[in-house]
DNA sequence: CGACGTATTGACTCGGCTCAAAACCTGTGG
DNA sequence: CCACAGGTTTTGAGCCGAGTCAATACGTCG
C-alpha cells in the first residue's frame, strides 16, 4: 500500500474524494467506483497550463488543492477571466458534449487534482439519470453566478465590485465583524473583477474610506458587514445575502 | 373546430408547436402530447409583464411570436438586461428546480405564447432521461452565450459590441453584402449591449465611418461583412463566425 | 397640424485605463 | 545578517470612453 503522500495510487482514496462532490450526490456507488478506478492524480506547478481553449478534450478534472484560472484570450493577448475554480470543484466537464474545452485553464498556484476520462462521463450521462440531473443543477447554479457577473459589470463601479467580492467571502456573517484572508493575489482578483491592478488598488482605498474596512496585506478586517453590504449592494439586483 | 386565429383551443396545434423545440428533440410522443394538452394560449400587449423576479413560479412559456425582455433591476430602478428571448424559444423553465423566477420578464412588443405548468416539467424531468439531456444541452449553449457577454463587456468598446451584435444577425453570410432589419428598438439594443442610447447612437456613427455599413432607420446595409468582422472581433476571444 | 415616442447632437463630467515611477515584500545567496 | 533581485502593490499625472443633462430633429399616428 502506497498510502501517505501518494493518493494517486489508490482508487480507495479517489473514491472518498469523489463521493462528496455535488455532481455525485445520490449517484450509484458502482458508478462512483468506476470513476475512482479511472482517476489519475496530478500536480500542477504555479502558472502551469492545464488545457487550452478549443483543444480537443479527453479529460475532466477534480481540484483537490489550489486554484485554477479559467480564461479566454484575444488575438492581441488580452484575457477575460471567466472563473477561478476553488478546490473541491469539478472542471472541464462542460466539454463532455462539445468535445473541446471552451476556455483555457491555468494553475494559479501549486495545485493537486484528479484527472478523469471524459469518455467515462459521456457514457455515464447516457445512462445515469441522477448524474445528469445533478449536472443540470450545477449548471443552473453556475448560470446564476454568471448572470450576476454581467449585472455587476454593467451596473456596479470598481469599489462596489470589490465590496461584493469581499462579502461573498463572508459566508459566516452572523457576526458583524469579520477577518478574512484574500484567497489569491490582488492582481488576480482585479482581473477576475474585470479591472486593472491600479484601479483595484485605488478602488480599495476608497472602499476603506467609505465603509469601515481595513487591510493589512492580504488580510481584510471588516468592522461592519452591514455597512459594506449597504455600500456595495446598492447598485445590485440581489438584496444583501448575495445568494449563490 | 375553432381553427383559425385561436390556436389556444386546440391541443393538436400546441403539439405541432412544441415538437420542433430543441428541448423536445427525441422525446417520447406521449410526453409531448401531455404538455400540449396542458398548454394554454396567451397574448401579451407591448410592455406587459409576464412575471417578476423572485415570484413563485408555476408556469413556463414557449414564445410563438414577438420578443420578451428578461432583466433584473436594482433598488433605485436601474435595470440589467440578461436576455431578449425570440419566438421559438422556451422561457422560465430554469425555475423548475428553484421554484421562483430568477429574472423579471416583459413583452417588448405584442407577443403570443404558450403557458405550460411547471409542475409537469418537474415531473417529466424526474423520469424522462432524454428531456433532461436536452435541457442540459440547452443550458450549456446558454452558458456559452453568457460567457461571451462577459468577455464583450470587459474587452470590447461600444462600437465593437454593436458590430458584433450586427454580425450575429447575419447567419447567412456567404455573401459579403447583407441587408438586415434591426429586430427591435435601438434603445432596447443599447440596453441589451449595456450602454446608453446616446452612446449607442454615437458608437454606431463611428462604426459607419470605420467599416462600410450604412443605416436607414432600422435597416442596416453591410457592404463588407469581413471588414466589420475584422473591426469588431479584434478584441474578441472567438474568431469570426462567432459561433453560438 | 400637433403630440408623443424615438433618435441624434452638443457640452460637460467623471471613472477607469495607460504609462511611469516609487514603495513594499519575499526569498536567495553571500 | 545584509544585499540584491524578483515580483507585487501603491501612487502620480494625463488621457479617453462612456455617462449625464439638455436641446433639437425625426417619425408616426391621432
Protein traits:
homodimer; 244 residues; alpha+beta; four-stranded antiparallel beta sheet; 9 helices; disordered N terminus; DNA-binding
Task: Describe this structure in a few short sentences.
The structure is a homodimer of 244-residue chains. Chain A has helices at 11-18, 29-38, 95-98, 118-127, 129-155, 158-169, 186-192, 197-210, 225-232; strands at residues 40-44, 49-51, 59-65, 67-73, 79-86, 90-91, 104-107, 111-117, 178-181, 213-216, 219-222. Chain A has 244 residues and is of the alpha+beta class.
Q: What's the structural blueprint in terms of helices and strands?
A:
Two copies of one chain form a homodimer.
Chain A: H1 11-18, H2 29-38, E1 40-44, E2 49-51, E3 59-65, E4 67-73, E5 79-86, E6 90-91, H3 95-98, E7 104-107, E8 111-117, H4 118-127, H5 129-155, H6 158-169, E9 178-181, H7 186-192, H8 197-210, E10 213-216, E11 219-222, H9 225-232
Antiparallel strand pairs in A: 1-8, 2-7, 3-6, 3-8, 4-5, 4-7, 9-11, 10-11
Helix pairs in contact in A: 1-2, 6-8, 6-9, 7-8
Chain A binds a DNA duplex (30 and 30 nucleotides) through helix 8.
**Total beta-strand segments of chain A:** 11
Number of helices of chain A: 9
End-to-end separation of chain A: 41 Å
Bulk shape of chain A: globular
N-to-C series of helices and strands of chain A: HHEEEEEEHEEHHHEHHEEH
Beta-strand content of chain A? 15-25%
The spatial strand order of the largest sheet of chain A comes to 1-8-3-6
Largest interface: A-B, 40 and 41 residues
Range of helix content of chain A: 40-55%
Q: Which oligomerization state do the chains in this entry correspond to?
A: homodimer
Gyration radius from CA atoms of chain A, angstroms: 20 Å
Mean pLDDT of chain A: 91
| Low-confidence spans of chain A | 1-8
Structural class category of chain A: alpha+beta
* Biggest sheet descriptor of chain A: 4 strands, antiparallel
Amino acid at each position: 500500500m502506497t498510502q501517505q503522500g501518494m493518493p494517486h495510487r489508490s482508487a480507495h482514496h479517489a473514491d472518498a474524494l469523489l463521493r462528496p462532490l455535488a455532481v455525485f450526490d445520490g449517484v450509484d456507488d458502482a458508478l462512483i467506483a468506476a470513476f475512482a478506478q479511472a482517476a489519475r492524480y496530478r500536480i500542477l506547478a504555479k502558472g502551469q497550463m492545464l488545457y487550452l481553449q478549443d483543444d480537443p478534450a479527453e479529460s475532466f478534472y477534480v481540484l483537490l488543492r489550489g486554484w485554477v484560472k479559467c480564461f479566454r484570450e484575444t488575438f492581441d493577448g488580452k484575457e477575460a477571466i471567466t472563473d477561478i475554480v476553488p478546490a473541491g470543484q469539478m472542471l472541464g466537464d462542460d466539454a463532455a458534449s462539445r468535445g473541446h474545452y471552451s476556455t483555457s485553464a491555468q494553475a494559479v498556484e501549486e495545485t493537486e487534482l484528479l484527472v478523469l476520462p471524459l469518455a467515462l462521463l459521456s457514457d455515464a450521462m447516457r445512462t445515469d439519470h441522477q448524474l445528469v440531473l445533478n449536472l443540470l443543477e450545477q449548471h443552473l447554479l453556475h448560470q446564476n453566478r454568471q448572470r450576476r457577473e454581467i449585472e455587476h459589470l454593467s451596473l456596479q463601479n470598481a469599489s462596489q465590485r470589490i465590496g461584493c467580492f469581499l462579502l461573498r467571502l463572508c459566508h459566516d456573517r452572523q457576526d458583524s465583524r469579520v477577518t478574512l484572508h484574500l484567497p489569491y493575489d490582488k492582481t488576480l482578483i482585479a482581473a477576475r473583477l474585470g479591472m486593472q491592478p491600479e484601479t483595484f488598488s485605488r478602488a480599495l482605498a476608497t472602499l476603506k474610506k467609505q465603509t469601515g474596512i481595513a487591510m493589512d496585506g492580504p488580510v481584510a478586517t471588516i468592522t461592519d458587514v452591514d455597512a459594506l453590504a449597504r455600500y456595495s449592494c446598492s447598485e445590485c439586483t440581489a438584496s444583501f445575502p448575495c445568494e449563490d
